[in-house]
């Protein structure tokens, strides 16, 4: 047993067994462990239980944090629900501008007011906000006709309804309260902080869980080992074993003396038996090897003999399994049909019981009706139950109206007319239909309207079931007929004539005969395969013999050639005799022949390589890429045969070496120039991206514009690329421009601005850039619209106002780039009759406020005298067109100045939109002529 663990190895719970101050710091003896085993086991069980509870609490807390992290998402704002998104998309398709409430809250409402708006209008925050109040009625009609049928309650309202002040509640907190929403729905900073805190806490908790789980596993293992030891050694067993050990020790001492005497006698016998045992072991080992080999061979022989039978049995079992599966499928189909019939009968019985209860209730309401009804039905009326019910109703009406003769006659006339129409309609039906209808009306299913409807529904279901079964049977019948036609012989009625004993008596007998024939076919196929294998072996041996004969013929031909090329004795050098023995000479000759064959193979491979290199060289010389090359070497390469090219290879290599060095230097210079161009273009692209960020920063609006106060009129979002990716993408842009310059008739522009625009586009791939702009409206809601949707969402005046604001932003950006961001004046913009499109007061105020904030002077020119619009301007100068007919000149003269009043002194903290700081007047002298 291991020593007791100290507190450093234990789990969180503190137990006496794990106390480092306890005296049991040395390993326990067997007697101590036996004495305190139960106490130690109880302490371990308590420690394990406490650790399991603590681990469960930690995992529960981790699951809660994981759920919260999953709700917060990975970053940014979480999307609203699917029902809200479907509603916004539907309104957008119908030209109604709308935003989800959470997005509108994040974009248009000050974060300080989020809690107030959530508490006041939670249904609109989780709903849809219509940004244009004029389309509210149209949105109600469109959504009412659409029948979207959302699973949750989706509130739709205007921005004014969302931002309306909350009425005072004097009654204190009500019975309804708001569960704190996910901060990632409306506040990105709060969501990021919450995510970071949860992730840090989750990491610490996971580490604690792993540590505790490890300690808990060790405690469980120790408890299991202690329990197993206690099971094998119960209390008191150790004492008994000690006494038995002492007795055995005494007996062992007596036996040792006897053993010493016996060892001497046995040593002699062992020496004699060792030799016999060695011989016996050798013989047994040899026999055992022989038996194993014999058993293995016998087993292999048996398997080879039984292989055909096993394969036949396997095929039979496979066929039987297929048939069993078919029968099981048939039984399953029948069981399903029977189950459907049972359910139909059950429904019919339920309908009958429901009809009986309804009839009993109806009978109890009839005055004078007997409570008990005879079972024999001898006195039952022949008319159907609906007819009796109608007669009873008519009699009740007659009884109630017995005092009014004229009304009774009118009622009677109407009843007779209805009866005549119904009887005429009935007479048009056939006798078979009327008879069947009467039978059905007399049955329990025809007692009332619901029963008749239920019976009709059951009949339709039964018809559909029968049609389904009929279609399935027809399909199976057609498939079987198709298989029969496909398997039928073409020229005769049968494929072959069968003997009398092989003619099938029924389907089962036919299947048995088919299985037997299949087994015989498999056996014949196996025999055929064996014969084919033997035939293939014979063919291979035949081909080997033919190859050997061909090799012998080649050797004989080579010897004959050597004999023909044998020189006379006077011309042949006298060979020197081999100094070694005959075997050494033969071995040397074999080595020489092998070396000769290797050299011949190397020579053949080298010739093949030379031919391939020559072909590659000729293809390069004939390539269309080098048509402009007019060197003599290329002409020689194209005209010389392939076999003569290796002779001139060295001369060409020496001639091309200087040109290769020059081209290598030029390519290196081009690569350096390309890197320089890419670096320059990267600097321009980074400057352009910084300009986009500056445009968003400079478009910040001044205070005093409601929700637009402090907002950025232009919002530009894009993903910043890293340096390596940016360099690679800009290199591709430069390569495309270079290839376009080489190509003919290429329409790709290569000026500086086009390259810069393509570089910026490549840098922002694949997501590109997203540009949003504030939509001008009467209440200045902070609603942002993508620039691609301005033509669909903005009106003419709103488009003009947005264009003026964008121009002012660009003018301020230009002034900032030129280093004049500290100056007040950023430029002047002349507007040609803008009041014709944007004459609304709020649009004019917004234009002047944006231009004043960005330091741009606006000059409006118009031919309209709209007093409402002109009243917004501090100075209006009316001009008049004059003409000097004698000189043929035209003039523009000032007719009058219109001012609403003297300019007021600006108040502290108030923005000044326009102010005249100086004037200059030129007066024509009185004595001058006109």
Explain the layout of strands and helices.
Blueprint: H1 30-35, H2 37-72, H3 82-93, E1 98-100, H4 101-108, H5 114-120, H6 122-125, E2 128-130, H7 136-146, E3 156-158, H8 159-163, H9 188-232, H10 237-365, H11 385-400, H12 405-427, H13 431-442, H14 449-487, H15 507-564, H16 582-622, H17 632-639, H18 645-698, E4 714-718, H19 723-742, H20 752-763, E5 769-774, E6 784-786, H21 790-793, H22 796-817, E7 827-832, H23 841-854, E8 856-861, H24 867-870, E9 876-884, E10 889-898
Parallel strand pairs: 2-3, 7-8
Antiparallel strand pairs: 1-2, 4-5, 5-6, 9-10
Helix pairs in contact: 2-9, 10-14, 10-15, 16-17, 18-19, 18-20, 18-22, 19-20, 22-23
Helix content: 55-70%
Question: How many distinct beta strands?
Answer: 10
Strand order across the largest sheet: 1-2-3
Q: What portion of the residues fall into strands of 2 or more residues?
A: 5-15%
**Unreliable residue stretches:** 1-24, 565-570
Provide mean pLDDT, rounded. 76
- Based on helices, strands and strand pairing, what is the structural class? mainly alpha
| Count, helices | 24
For the record, give the distance between the C-alpha atoms at the N and C termini, rounded to a whole number.
129 Å
Global Rg: 54 Å
Main beta-sheet strand count, sense and barrel state: 3 strands, mixed
How would the global form be characterised?
extended
Question: How would you describe this protein?
Answer:
This protein is mainly α. Helices cover 63% and strands 6% of the residues. The chain contains 24 helices and 10 strands. The strands form 4 sheets. The protein has a 3-stranded mixed β-sheet with strand order 1-2-3. Strands 4-5-6 form a 3-stranded antiparallel β-sheet. Strand 7, helix 23 and strand 8 form a beta-alpha-beta unit. Helix 10 crosses helix 15, helix 18 packs across helix 19 and helix 22 runs parallel beside helix 23. The longest helix has 129 residues. The termini are far apart. The relative contact order is 0.03. The N terminus is likely disordered.
């Amino acid at each position: 047993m291991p020593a007791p663990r100290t507190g450093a190895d234990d789990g969180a719970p503190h137990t006496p067994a794990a106390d480092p101050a306890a005296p049991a710091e040395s390993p326990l003896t067997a007697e101590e462990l036996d004495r305190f085993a139960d106490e130690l086991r109880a302490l371990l069980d308590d420690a394990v239980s406490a650790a399991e509870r603590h681990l469960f609490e930690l995992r529960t807390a981790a699951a809660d944090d994981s759920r919260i992290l999953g709700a917060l998402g990975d970053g940014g704002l979480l999307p609203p629900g699917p029902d809200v998104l479907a509603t916004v998309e539907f309104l957008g398709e119908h030209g109604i501008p709308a935003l989800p409430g959470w997005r509108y809250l994040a974009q248009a409402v000050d974060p300080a007011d989020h809690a107030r708006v959530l508490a006041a209008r939670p249904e609109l925050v989780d709903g849809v906000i219509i940004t244009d109040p004029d389309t509210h009625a149209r949105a109600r009609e469109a959504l009412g006709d659409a029948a979207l049928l959302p699973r949750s309650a989706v509130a739709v309202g205007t921005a004014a309804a969302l931002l309306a002040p909350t009425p005072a509640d004097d009654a204190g907190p009500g019975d309804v309260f708001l569960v704190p929403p996910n901060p990632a729905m409306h506040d990105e900073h709060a969501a990021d902080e919450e995510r970071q805190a949860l992730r840090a806490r989750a990491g610490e908790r996971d580490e604690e869980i792993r540590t505790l789980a490890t300690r808990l596993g060790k405690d469980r293992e120790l408890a299991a080992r202690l329990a197993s030891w206690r099971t094998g050694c119960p209390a008191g067993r150790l004492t008994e074993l000690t006494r038995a050990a002492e007795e055995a020790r005494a007996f062992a001492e007596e036996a040792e003396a006897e053993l010493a005497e016996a060892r001497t006698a046995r040593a002699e016998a062992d020496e004699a038996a060792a030799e016999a045992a060695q011989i016996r072991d050798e013989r047994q080992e040899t026999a055992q090897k022989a038996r194993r080999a014999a058993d293995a061979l016998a087993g292999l022989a048996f398997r080879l003999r039984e292989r055909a039978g096993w394969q036949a049995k396997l095929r039979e079992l496979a066929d039987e399994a297929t048939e069993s599966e078919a029968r099981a499928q048939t039984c399953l189909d029948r069981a399903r049909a029977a189950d459907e019939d049972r359910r139909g009968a059950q429904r019919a019985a339920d309908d009958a019981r429901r009809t009986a209860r309804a009839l009993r209730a109806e009978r109890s309401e009839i005055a004078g009706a007997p409570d008990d009804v005879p079972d024999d039905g001898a006195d039952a009326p022949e008319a159907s139950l609906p007819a009796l019910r109608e007669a009873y109703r008519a009699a009740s009406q007659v009884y109630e109206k017995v005092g009014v003769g004229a009304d009774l006659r009118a009622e009677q006339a109407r009843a007779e007319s209805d009866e005549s129409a119904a009887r005429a309609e009935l007479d048009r039906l056939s006798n078979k239909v009327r008879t069947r209808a009467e039978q059905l009306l007399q049955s329990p299913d025809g007692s009332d309207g619901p029963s008749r409807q239920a019976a009709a529904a059951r009949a339709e279901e039964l018809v559909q079931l029968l049609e389904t079964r009929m279609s399935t049977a027809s399909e199976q019948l057609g498939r079987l007929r198709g298989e029969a036609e496909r398997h039928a012989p073409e020229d005769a009625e049968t494929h072959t004539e069968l003997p009398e004993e092989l003619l099938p008596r029924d389907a089962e007998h036919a299947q048995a005969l088919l299985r037997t024939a299949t087994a015989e076919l498999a056996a014949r196929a196996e025999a055929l395969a064996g014969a084919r294998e033997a035939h293939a072996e014979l063919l291979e041996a035949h081909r080997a013999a033919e190859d050997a004969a061909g090799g012998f013929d080649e050797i004989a031909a080579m010897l004959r050639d050597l004999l023909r090329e044998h020189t006379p004795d006077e011309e042949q050098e006298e060979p020197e005799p081999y100094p070694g023995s005959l075997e050494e000479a033969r071995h040397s000759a074999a080595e020489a022949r092998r070396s000769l064959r290797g050299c011949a193979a190397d020579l053949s491979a080298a010739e093949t390589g030379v031919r391939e290199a020559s072909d590659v060289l000729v293809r390069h010389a004939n390539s269309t890429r080098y048509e402009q090359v007019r060197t003599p070497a290329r002409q020689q390469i194209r005209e010389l045969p392939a076999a003569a090219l290796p002779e001139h290879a060295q001369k060409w290599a020496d001639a091309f070496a200087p040109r290769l060095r020059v081209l290598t230097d030029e390519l290196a210079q081009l690569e350096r120039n390309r890197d320089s161009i890419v670096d320059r273009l990267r600097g321009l692209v980074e400057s352009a991206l910084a300009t986009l960020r500056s445009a968003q920063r400079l478009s910040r609006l001044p205070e005093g514009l409601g929700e637009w106060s402090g907002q950025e009129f232009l919002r530009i979002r894009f993903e910043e690329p890293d340096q390596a990716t940016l360099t690679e993408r800009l290199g591709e842009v430069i390569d495309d421009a270079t290839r376009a310059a080489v190509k003919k008739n290429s329409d790709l522009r290569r000026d500086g601005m086009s390259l810069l625009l393509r570089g910026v586009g490549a840098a922002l791939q694949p997501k590109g850039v997203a540009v949003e702009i504030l939509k001008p409206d009467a209440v200045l809601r902070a609603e942002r619209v993508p620039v691609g949707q301005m033509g669909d969402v903005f009106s003419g005046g709103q488009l003009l106002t947005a264009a003026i604001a964008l121009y002012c932003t660009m003018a301020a950006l230009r002034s900032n780039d030129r280093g004049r961001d500290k100056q007040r004046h950023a430029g002047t913009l002349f507007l040609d009759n803008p009041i014709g499109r944007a004459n609304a007061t709020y649009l004019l105020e917004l234009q002047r406020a944006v231009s004043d904030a960005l330091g741009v002077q606006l000059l409006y020119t118009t031919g309209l005298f709209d007093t409402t619009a002109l009243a917004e301007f501090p100075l209006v100068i009316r001009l008049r067109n004059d003409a000097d007919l004698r000189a043929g000149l035209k003039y523009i003269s000032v007719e009058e100045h219109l001012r609403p009043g003297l300019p007021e002194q600006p108040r502290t903290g108030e923005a000044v939109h326009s102010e005249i700081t100086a004037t200059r007047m030129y007066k024509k002298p009185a004595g001058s002529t006109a």
